[in-house]
Design a protein that fits this description.
about 350 residues; mainly beta; Lipocalin; 2 helices; 11 strands; about 5% helix; about 60% strand
C-alpha cells in the first residue's frame, strides 16, 4: 500500500511531457489543452537585498560636521602717500563647522548653509611706518596668537540641468555670507634699523634690527575684520558611482560690506577706548570650494575638500582715535585671503 501511495504522489508531482496528446482512433477522449512548454508553478525566490542601492538614489538631504584647517592674511595701506602698512599672516587656524543641505522631493530646489567657529594660534604681523619722504621709518614684527574666526552662509538654489543618462547636474545659487576674523598680536621686535631717532608705531625708538621693544606677553595690536556679503554662484555635482560624489562650487561676491576695528593698545595718544582706528567700506570677492564625498553606508559618508576665499576693498573711510583725534583719513588696497582643507562626516536622509 505504501508503495502505491508513493507512486501516486510521484505521478502528481511529475510535469506533463512536453508533447501533444493525441486521442486514440475511435475514442471519445478529447486532445489535451496543456501547453507544450508548461511547467508547474513554483514561488519566485526572494529578491536579493541591496539596501544601499535602494536608499541612496533619493537620499540627498544632508547634515554634517567638519574640521577646517586653514591659513589667512589681511593687508592694507594707510593714506596716500603711505604713512603705514600692516600685513597680518596667520599660519594655523583651526575651526569646527556644521553644514546642511535640503532639497524638495523632485530635487529641483535646494537650501544649504554653513556655520563655523574657530581659533588662530600662530602667525605674525609686520608693521611698516614711513617717513614723509616715503622711506621706511620703522619695520617691526609681532607674533600672532589666540585669535578668533567665525563665519557662515545661507544659500537658495535651483537646478539648471541634469545631464541625461548621468548623475551630473549644475545648480545656480545665491545667498548671504558673514566672516569675522580677529587677529591678535603680542610683543614687538625691530626687523631692520629705522631712521635714527624715528619713532615706530609704539612711539619707541628702533635703533637696530632685532631689538625687542615690547615683551612677547604684552598685547600690542588687534585687527577685527568683518565682512557681510551677497554672493551668487554655480555648483556642479557629479556622482560617478552610488558611493562616490564630487561637488565643485564657484561663487562671486559682487558686494560685501566691510568693517574693520584696529586696536593699537600702546598708543595712548589715540584715546583710551578700543578699537582706536575704525574703517568702513565696501568690496567684492570670490569663494571657491571642492568636496569629495564617499558613502560608507546608505546614510553615512566621509568627505574631504578644500576652500579658498579672497576679498578686496579699493578704499575705506578711516576714523583715527577714540574719541577721534584726526580728520577723516583713507585706507587703501585691502586684501583678505584664506585657504585651507577640511574633512568631516555627513548624515544623509
Amino acid at each position: 500500500m505504501s508503495v502505491l501511495l508513493f507512486a501516486l504522489l510521484l505521478l502528481v508531482a511529475t510535469p506533463v511531457p512536453a508533447m501533444a496528446q493525441t486521442a486514440p482512433t475511435g475514442s471519445n477522449t478529447q486532445p489535451s489543452t496543456t501547453p507544450t512548454n508548461w511547467t508547474p508553478w513554483r514561488p519566485a525566490p526572494p529578491a536579493p537585498q541591496n539596501d544601499f542601492a535602494a536608499a541612496t538614489r533619493y537620499r540627498n538631504d544632508e547634515l554634517g560636521l567638519r574640521y577646517w584647517y586653514s591659513s589667512g592674511e589681511i593687508s592694507y595701506d594707510v593714506s596716500k602717500p603711505k604713512i603705514s602698512r600692516l600685513d597680518y599672516k596667520v599660519d594655523n587656524s583651526q575651526s569646527g563647522e556644521m553644514y546642511f543641505r535640503f532639497t524638495n522631493p523632485q530635487e529641483r530646489y535646494l537650501f544649504k548653509g554653513t556655520l563655523g567657529f574657530g581659533g588662530e594660534q600662530n602667525g605674525n604681523v609686520r608693521d611698516f611706518d614711513y617717513n614723509a619722504d616715503g622711506s621706511t621709518g620703522s619695520d617691526t614684527d609681532s607674533k600672532l596668537g589666540k585669535g578668533r574666526l567665525s563665519y557662515g552662509n545661507a544659500d537658495l538654489g535651483v537646478k539648471l540641468r541634469a545631464l541625461s543618462g548621468t548623475s551630473a547636474s549644475t545648480t545656480l545659487f545665491g545667498g548671504l555670507g558673514y566672516i569675522q576674523d580677529v587677529m591678535t598680536a603680542r610683543g614687538s621686535t625691530c626687523v631692520q634699523a629705522g631712521t635714527p631717532g624715528a619713532p615706530n608705531n609704539f612711539n619707541l625708538d628702533c635703533p637696530s634690527a632685532g631689538t625687542v621693544e615690547v615683551a612677547s606677553n604684552i598685547k600690542t595690536l588687534q585687527n577685527d575684520a568683518q565682512w557681510t556679503s551677497f554672493r551668487v554662484g554655480l555648483e556642479n555635482n557629479f556622482q560617478p558611482t552610488q558611493r562616490l560624489s564630487w561637488k565643485n562650487e564657484v561663487a562671486f561676491v559682487p558686494y560685501a560690506s566691510f568693517w574693520n576695528g584696529d586696536s593699537h593698545y600702546l598708543r595712548s595718544d589715540l584715546g583710551t577706548s578700543q578699537p582706536n582706528i575704525v574703517d568702513n567700506g565696501s568690496g567684492y570677492g570670490v569663494q571657491l570650494e571642492s568636496t569629495l564625498d564617499y558613502k560608507i553606508t546608505s546614510r553615512w559618508s566621509l568627505n574631504l575638500g578644500g576652500r579658498f576665499w579672497e576679498f578686496w576693498v579699493p578704499d575705506s573711510t578711516t576714523k583715527v582715535g577714540n574719541p577721534i583725534v584726526l580728520d577723516e583719513q583713507k585706507a587703501y588696497s585691502w586684501v583678505y585671503q584664506r585657504l585651507g582643507v577640511f574633512g568631516g562626516v555627513t548624515y544623509h536622509f
